[in-house]
Amino acid sequence: MMGKRTIIVALVGVNVLLASALLSSVAALPTARAQTGARPGELLCVTAKPAGQSYDVLYMLDAGAHKLHAFYHASPQSSRLIPVQPRDLLADFGKDSTP
After folding, report:
1. What is the pLDDT of residues 8-56, one digit of tens each?
2. Closest Cα partner for 67 from 50, 90, 47?
3. Are 62 and 43 in contact (CB under 8 A)?
4. Residue 63: inside a domain, yes or no?
């Protein structure tokens, strides 16, 4: 049978181990993953709330196809997104400005 002192030392050791594991996971900063710019075939996504509305819209810019897509929720309780007719950015803004 283990003595009282042995049990206390074991519990203190477990506490130190748990505290160090907690601190190591909290102290590590997450890696930032930023988009460096538009490249053909890649998408850029952003959300926005239209003025006077209570819902958000998801905008997706397809740099390769020069299209702007928009999606909104069917209802606040739904997770289903409804697509809006995509915009052709070349037709809206003129000729392609990429080199």
Report:
1. 999 999 999 999 888 887 766 667 666 566 565 578 888 898 888 778 8
2. 90
3. yes
4. yes
**Domain tally for the chain?**
1
Cα Rg, the chain, nearest whole Å: 26
The residues facing 67 across adjacent strands are 62, 88
Question: CA 83, 88, 92, 93: dihedral to nearest 10 degrees?
Answer: 120
Residue 90: half-sphere exposure toward Cβ, Cα within 13 Å: 9
Can you give the pTM of this predicted structure? 0.51
CA pair distance 67, 44, nearest whole angstrom? 11
- Cβ neighbours of 38 (radius 10 Å): 15
Q: Is residue 21 part of a domain?
A: no
Residue range(s) defining the domain that contains residue 60: 43-93
In terms of residues, how long is the chain? 99
Residue 10 falls inside a structural domain: no
More confident residue, 89 or 32: 89
DSSP bridge partners of 69: 60
